[in-house]
Write a structure and sequence with these properties.
It contains four helices and four strands. It has helices at about 30-35, 45-55, 70-75, 80-89; strands at about 1-10, 10-15, 20-25, 65-70. A four-stranded mixed β-sheet has the order 1-2-3-4, covered by helices on one side. A hairpin with a 3-residue loop joins strand 2 and strand 3. Helix 2 crosses helix 4 (about 80-89).
Length: about 90
């Protein structure tokens, strides 16, 4: 289960409940949000889809506790293309 809560501006708190519960602080710039979504889904939906993407590849304990959403593509180069595809479906 993934829960997203707005902290302030473009900063969000994400709680991931799996075998253990983890908390993450995520920043999503407006430019990156628009690049991935064309403004067609909420920030929360983008973050949930991004965490689902990450959880398919690693455990919630392996996900950074604080990061900018854009950094995912440094670890997983297919992220941007895959997320765009998922959000259009």
């Amino acid at each position: 289960m993934i829960t997203v809560k707005l902290i302030k501006g473009s900063d969000f708190e994400v709680m991931v409940e799996s075998k253990s519960i983890t908390h993450h602080k995520v920043h999503v710039s407006n430019d990156f949000y628009n690049f991935l979504t064309d403004g067609k889904v909420s920030y929360e939906h983008l973050i949930i889809a991004s965490f689902e993407f990450l959880l398919e590849r690693e455990s919630n304990n392996s996900i950074l506790s604080q990061f900018d959403l854009k950094v995912i593509s440094h670890y997983f180069p297919e992220y941007e293309k895959e997320i765009k595809k998922r959000l259009k479906a």
